[in-house]
Each structure stands twice: as structure tokens, then as C-alpha cells.
TrEMBL record:
Keywords: Methyltransferase, Transferase
Pfam families on file: MTS
A molecular function GO annotation: S-adenosylmethionine-dependent methyltransferase activity
GO terms under biological process: methylation
SUPFAM superfamilies the UniProt entry points to: S-adenosyl-L-methionine-dependent methyltransferases (SSF53335)
Name of the protein in question: 16S rRNA methyltransferase
Key word Iron present: no
InterPro entries from the UniProt entry: RsmC/RlmG, SAM-dependent_MTases_sf, Small_mtfrase_dom
Residue ranges of every copy of the Methyltransferase small domain listed in the record: 28-196
Length: 199
């Protein structure tokens, strides 16, 4: 099997690099590496989601497929009294996300390895779940993310996703509408759609 960023143990050689960027008006420095999603720079879809997402302070937040951490770390910055759990199947990404949270002085995060939401216990619930879903893993995995996110949201909680129209936004919206009481497109930019779904 070829190595994808959603592989559990990437075997490609390390190629660490530093990304200096500004997200939500704050300067961040991230370290990325070969074998993780969007290693060269924070991908455009994640940026669009970060700029659009609303994270009420004090929220319990989950970042599904966190990669090296830009979405979850930004959420933790926006909600300093909240708590953010960041999960990814990729062990290299998990290590980088921990390192990046620490380097950027973000303390209200926990990072753990998880295949989709499988490592969470049934009682863990969140006010906000964020994901730039792993499109290349296939529609079944993306829909599994939506189903498991629904199960782990508090009543009234929100799932925020970013997805490109050409990568299946219509079918993603249809799936979300089968699960959630309210599904709304709240932004679009260069073919990326930001979808907010409320439980």
C-alpha cells in the first residue's frame, strides 16, 4: 500500500520544515514533516475553516484528523478557557501537533492517536467538533467521521467541516442532513465550502 497521510505509521524519511503564518490575527510557527497532510504549508481549506469557525470560550472542542495541529491549536487560542482534544491516526502528526501546541504556548490542548473517533469513550461529548475530513481515505471514512461526530456532540453542539465542491460537497451535505437537525453552508472560498451542522 502506498503511504498516505492517513497511514498510522508513515515510513517516508523525515523532512522537517518550519511554517511561519498568521491565523485569526495571531502569529504561529508550526513544524511539519514528510508523511503528514499538507507538509509544505497550511492547506487552503484548513485556512478557510480556521477563519470561519466560531469557538465560544469555555467550549469542549474536538479536532478530528488534526494533522500537525493548525485547526485545533487555533481553536484553543480562540477559546482560552476551553479544552481542545486533537486526534489523528498518523502517529507522526500526533507528535508534531503536541510539539506545535507547546512551541506556540497553547496549553489547553490534548493530542492523541485515534482511528477516526475510535479511541474516545462513549461518554466523551463536545460542544464543537472541527474537521477537514480525509477525502483521499474515501467517502465511507468521511461519512464515518460525520456519524461518529454526531454521537460525540452535546445537544445543540456544532460540527464544522470544510470540503471542496469537486471532492464531494453535495454528497457530504446530503449525509449531514440525514444526521443533523440543521445544516448550513456558512462560507465559500475558491471552491471550498464551510458547512456548519447543529445537533
Amino acid at each position: 500500500m502506498s503511504q498516505h497521510y492517513y497511514s498510522q505509521q508513515p515510513e517516508v524519511r523525515h523532512d522537517r520544515r518550519t511554517i511561519d503564518t498568521v491565523l485569526r490575527g495571531k502569529s504561529f510557527r508550526f513544524t511539519s514533516d514528510a508523511g503528514v497532510f499538507s507538509k509544505g504549508d497550511i492547506d487552503y481549506g484548513s485556512r478557510v475553516l480556521i477563519e470561519a469557525m466560531i469557538i465560544p470560550d469555555g467550549s469542549a472542542v474536538l479536532d478530528v484528523g488534526c494533522g500537525y495541529g493548525p485547526i485545533g491549536i487555533s481553536a484553543a487560542y480562540l477559546a482560552p478557557k476551553g479544552q481542545v482534544l486533537m486526534i489523528d491516526i498518523n502517529s507522526r502528526a500526533v507528535e508534531l501537533a503536541r510539539e506545535n501546541a507547546q512551541h506556540n504556548g497553547i496549553r489547553n490542548v490534548t493530542v492523541m492517536e485515534s482511528d477516526v473517533l475510535g479511541a474516545l469513550n462513549e461518554q466523551q461529548k463536545f460542544d464543537v467538533i472541527l474537521t477537514n475530513p480525509p477525502i483521499r481515505a474515501g467517502k465511507a471514512v468521511v461519512h464515518q467521521v460525520f456519524e461518529e461526530a454526531y454521537d460525540h456532540l452535546n445537544e445543540g453542539g456544532f460540527l464544522w467541516i470544510v470540503i471542496q465542491k469537486k471532492q464531494g460537497a453535495p454528497s457530504a451535505v446530503a449525509k449531514l442532513e440525514s444526521l443533523f437537525s440543521e445544516v448550513e453552508e456558512v462560507g465559500k472560498d475558491k471552491g471550498y465550502r464551510i458547512i456548519k451542522a447543529q445537533k
